[in-house]
Amino acid sequence: MPDATQHLTLANGLQLTLRHAPRLKRAAAALRVQAGSHDAPAKWPGMAHFLEHLFFLGTARFPLEDGLMRYVQALGGQVNASTRERTTDFFFEVPPAALAGGLERLCQMLAEPDLGIERQRREREVIHAEFIAWSRNPQAQQQFALLQSVSPQHPLSSFQAGNRYTLALQDPAFQRALGLFHQRFYQGGQITLSLCGPQPLEALERLGRESGSLFPAGSRATQASPPPLRRAGQPLTFAHESLPEGAERALGLLIDLLDDSRPGGWLSALRQRGWLQGFKAETLYAFAGQLLWHIDLQLGADACKDEAIALLHSWFGFVRQADPQRLNAAFSQLQRSREWAASPLELARRDSSGQPFAALDEQGLSALKALLASLPSSEHGQWQIPAADALLTAAPPPATAPLPKALAISDMLPASRQYAALYLRWHLPSSLRHGVFPILCQALRPLQERAERAGLHLQFSEAGEYWQLQCAGQPSAVMNAVTEALALLNAPSPADWHTPPPPAPALIPIRALLKRLPDAMHTHKAEPLPAGSLEPRQLAQAWEQARWHGLALGFEDTGPLGTVLTHCPGQGATATAPPQWQARRWVDAALAGSENAVLLFCPVPADQQAIGRLLAQLLQGPVYQRLRVELQLGYAVFSAFRQIEGCAGLLFGVQSPHATPAQILAHLQPVLSKGVVLDSAAQQALAEQFAEPAMANAEVAEWAWQTHLATRPDRLNDLQWSILMARQADLDALLGSLLAPHAPWLCLANSAAPDPSWH
């Protein structure tokens, strides 16, 4: 059943978009202001971004401790904001009953912000820390370099993020400009508010009208037209002028076609030549008929870039001649699949930006024609539009084999959700796993690309001596994707053995540490690889020593899973206990980069997980207040409860441009030592987050998998009950044990241990 949508205009000019989606377990709001960094005075770069930050510091009505961020985080939700060139977006996702409270806080903080000079001074330092991290991040600098390909008269070519020197707080003219910017753009005529959730349209409309009316009335302000984009640039960066309405969505269709790596397309041609290592196409800028987009193409050392570009132009020529209705029909099928798999937050953000998961309308098709006409093209060769992907259309395999004993079946994800997840995990003691893993990743890449296009989550990862395959989405598509994945894991193609893996994307230090954390949980010692090149027989040897187990959730008919797992490599086994260590451990990730980052993981005993979750919830505010707001250690500061590799614990993370990991830990310890005070409202809210009907599909699946890895048959209702039964003495006792001198902390940092007390 399709979602029900409605579009309204309030008396103050605010555009209200509503989406009723009964399948959703959460609700979301996305508010877009039609103003961004290019609309602020050029004299003060970063003003729009600075104002976005100031909104989150609390108001008289909702101070920081009761503001939007704390409110959403206390409910286990998501909240963020983003300032682009011509738009600023604010968005959050919460349990449906909390949508009203979040929406009231969001609209009130934007309509009536506190722009006091002292909070401006503190937040400018946070902006400066972001600027330092941005200036040191290779990906950010690569994108900034791309924008230098446009005309130097265009604001895209200039610095817009802001720092300590561009935000002249002491200048009365800056303060007047800041106030005028807010007054001009944060009014009804500039705003689109989108609400999405399982609530009826009438209930969403009532919430939207109540909170949306907080903005003063106004009409759409004119945003100055930019100068032309064009300038001789890179061959894979494309600038367009004077395109009709709908061009950004038309580009979405083109990028979807370009992104299809199946036979017949440009990526397939590059892959067949053994050239393709990595690919990503993205929109860099879209406004007033201008469109700038880029193809990030990574080719092997033997590739001919000029020929690759010539092939692209030939493919553009082919697409220009293709039937647009056929292209749009395939795009529509993909969009329906993505809409079904999307979270409430994704749906709300799409609606607020005018980019819903839908086929192109007539205006969009006209824009597609204009877009293709403005691209370089040549006589097309042997190209073709691939047929509908089997992941979207095929029925599940027949039930011809019994379910293996190594596969556990969980009923924690009701089949009525029409969402399934299958986890498979192998223990491989052989040191061959280090060399073979990149080859298997290479073999799986085309399937992962197809899965992502089809709205499936397919991931292959390693941690310690373990490999893990995870697939989640529509049940029959999951079975078909895993069937293909297992065939590839058993027998990668000859080309996969000789194609070097693509370079890993550069990540900021804190994200790089988060990626490495699962591996750091294990205490295994690195083993040298066997001498010489790897061969298929060595993969077979590794699989012969492997032991596997798995978990399936959400399948109404589990019979076909036996067929799917017929060719699962390795021998079936049972799950083993999660990793444990008895003393403090420091793991130096040896990351390149000039900023310091640290993750501190404090394991919690399995029988005290409920107390640990409550403790983590109550620590979020104090940790953020002290490290982020008061000490301004950096813009990346967080604390949370996490289950990693079946091990539960409190996780703290900080990235700082000036504090060392040792200093960060020294600042964190006094915050923890102060303890927490039991809050019954927070306790009740946390317990409600673990009611199965209120949890998102992926949350239920991951909870069940982590419980399986922990080898403890916990139930969600048991966790809820334990949270509600927690007392102040329980919190004090657990925190005391975590702060004990020999508590088994794990510290993952991008530097060596500060002293020998860390083992």
TrEMBL record:
Keywords: Hydrolase, Metal-binding, Metalloprotease, PQQ biosynthesis, Protease, Zinc. Pathway: Cofactor biosynthesis; pyrroloquinoline quinone biosynthesis. Its cofactor is Zn(2+). InterPro entries: Metalloenz_LuxS/M16, Pept_M16_N, Pept_M16_Zn_BS, Peptidase_M16, PQQ_synth_PqqF, PqqF-like_C_4, PqqF_C_3. GO terms for molecular function: hydrolase activity. The keyword Ubl conjugation does not apply. Pfam families: Peptidase_M16, PqqF-like_C_4, PqqF_C_3. Residues 19-145 form the Peptidase M16 N-terminal domain. The keyword Lipid metabolism does not apply. Residues 420-552 form the Coenzyme PQQ synthesis protein F C-terminal lobe domain. It comes from the Bacteria. Gene3D superfamilies: Metalloenzyme, LuxS/M16 peptidase-like. Residues 614-705 form the Coenzyme PQQ synthesis protein F-like C-terminal lobe domain. Required for coenzyme pyrroloquinoline quinone (PQQ) biosynthesis. It is thought that this protein is a protease that cleaves peptides bond in a small peptide (gene pqqA), providing the glutamate and tyrosine residues which are necessary for the synthesis of PQQ. Belongs to the peptidase M16 family. This is Coenzyme PQQ synthesis protein F. The gene is pqqF.
